[in-house]
């Protein structure tokens, strides 16, 4: 026998029990998005590499070292498996002129790919739900996005906390950048390799470092908050007032910068201390420059993305994961005539909307009943020679008591529903 081939490192199979949990999560999410008026967008998983370089920024973890990029040998194009969804959403909005008649509320879900070191809560293929409000510039939409997250956490039975910051506008960031470079230049010996490399290309990114050795120099760094212009300050205050008015508490974290270049003004992260180092379950903010940067007519925008694996892990620690349901019925049958009757009964039950597993592969009643038990079905429907002759079925609960009743199939369907 040859060696079995394994899945690619950091990329997980979804086995049925897990998939059913995901589906329960997804149905809550779809209903939540519908209630806020967001509509689903589906974009390809492969994009031109240039899209991500332009959107996310050349000097970022993602573009520098995490992208799955390859040359399509059939035509020489350089392509990348999407590492996030915002760039594609904005590309699609521009390409299809979605903003011609005003703002659009959109969402997407699906796999994302980043070549990171796999660990709990960090995978090479992971999944996000992302929400983008394109074409809206006011603090009301920033607050809407955050308030709707808080609403979802309640529906999911979890309670991450909100960290909030503002990155101001381009001028504020320019002033801050100069002060930041001066600060780090005074402490060159304390900068790690990434920090030194980014000092002049993207010093803001240094603040986002996950290296604990960088914590003290980052804590002492000048704050963007102190450079804010009036408009950004008013915007930020507007967001905070709306959050407070709608019962969402937050902590202002002046060090929060986010790992992607396209953000300005409001940025936020929902974090938990229940998941170890991978504690951010949802992150987002405003990115007013991105539409223009990708070649569209200038339009403000804001959004967020959440990591499904981390949210489900958090639901698990909170005991909030719903148990996957088994089928309604497992049909046990023996004998040729019984089998023919069983097929008809199964068809009628399925047509009535019941989930029916038909025993396959023969065997004694006893062994079939064992299979019925392990199937987690609510009921066994038993069809032997007697039932085949009379056209009845025997219905036996697999959950409560041991009582069984012999009824005609229509009555069985009524009882099961
Ligand atoms: P981190 O700081 O943990 O690397 P990030 O800032 O790179 O996260 P974003 O690009 O903001 O993450 O993505 C939004 C969310 O997607 C994250 O908050 C997280 O929940 C999830 N996520 C990001 N990268 C991964 C990954 N490799 N595996 C699983 N989930 C991820
Ligand atoms: Mg990351």
Q: What distinguishing features does this structure have?
A:
16 strands, single chain, alpha+beta, binds adenosine-5'-triphosphate, binds magnesium ion, 417 residues, eight-stranded mixed β-sheet
Helix share bin? 25-40%
Distance between the termini: 49 Å
Radius of gyration: 28 Å
Number of strands: 16
Strand order of the largest sheet: 1-5-6-11-10-9-7-8
In percent terms, what proportion of residues is strand? 15-25%
Helix run count: 16
Q: Indicate the low-confidence ranges by residue numbers.
A: none
Structural class: alpha+beta
Give the averaged pLDDT, no decimals.
94
Q: What small molecules accompany the polymer chains?
A: adenosine-5'-triphosphate, magnesium ion
Q: Specify the biggest β-sheet.
A: 8 strands, mixed
Overall geometry: elongated
């Amino acid at each position: 026998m040859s060696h079995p081939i394994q899945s690619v490192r950091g990329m997980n199979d979804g086995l049925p029990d897990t998939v059913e949990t995901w589906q329960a999560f997804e149905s809550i999410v779809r209903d939540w998005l519908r209630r806020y008026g967001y509509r689903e967008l589906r974009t390809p998983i492969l994009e031109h590499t240039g899209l991500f370089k332009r959107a996310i920024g050349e000097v970022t973890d993602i573009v520098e070292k995490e992208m799955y990029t390859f040359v399509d040998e059939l035509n020489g194009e350089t392509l990348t498996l999407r590492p996030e969804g915002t760039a594609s959403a904005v590309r699609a909005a521009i390409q299809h002129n979605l903003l011609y008649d005003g703002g659009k509320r959109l969402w997407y879900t699906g796999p994302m790919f980043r070549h990171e070191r796999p660990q709990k809560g960090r995978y090479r293929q992971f999944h996000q739900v992302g929400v983008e409000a394109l074409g809206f510039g006011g603090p009301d939409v920033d607050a809407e996005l955050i308030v709707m997250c808080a609403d979802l956490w309640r529906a999911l039975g979890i309670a991450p906390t909100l960290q909030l910051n503002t990155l101001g506008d381009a001028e504020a960031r320019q002033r801050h950048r100069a002060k930041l470079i001066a600060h780090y230049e005074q402490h060159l010996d304390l900068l790690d390799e990434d920090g030194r490399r980014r000092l002049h290309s993207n010093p803001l990114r240094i603040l986002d470092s996950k290296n604990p050795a960088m914590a003290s120099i980052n804590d002492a760094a000048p704050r963007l908050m102190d450079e804010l212009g009036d408009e950004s300050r008013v915007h930020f205050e507007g967001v905070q007032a709306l959050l407070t008015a709608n019962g969402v508490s937050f902590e202002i974290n002046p060090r929060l910068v986010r790992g992607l270049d396209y953000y300005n003004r409001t940025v936020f992260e929902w974090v938990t201390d229940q998941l170890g180092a991978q504690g951010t379950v949802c992150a987002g903010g405003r990115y007013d420059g991105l539409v223009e940067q990708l070649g569209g007519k200038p339009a403000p925008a804001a959004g967020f993305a959440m990591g499904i694996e981390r949210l489900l892990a958090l639901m698990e620690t909170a005991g909030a994961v719903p148990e996957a349901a088994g089928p309604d019925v497992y049909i046990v049958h023996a004998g040729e005539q019984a089998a023919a009757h069983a097929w008809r009964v199964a068809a009628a039950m399925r047509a009535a909307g019941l989930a029916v597993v038909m025993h396959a592969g023969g065997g004694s009643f006893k062994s079939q009943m064992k299979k019925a038990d392990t199937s987690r079905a609510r009921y066994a429907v038993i069809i032997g020679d007697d039932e085949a002759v009379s056209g009845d079925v025997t219905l036996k609960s697999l959950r409560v008591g041991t009582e069984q009743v012999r009824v005609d199939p229509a009555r069985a369907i009524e009882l099961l529903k």
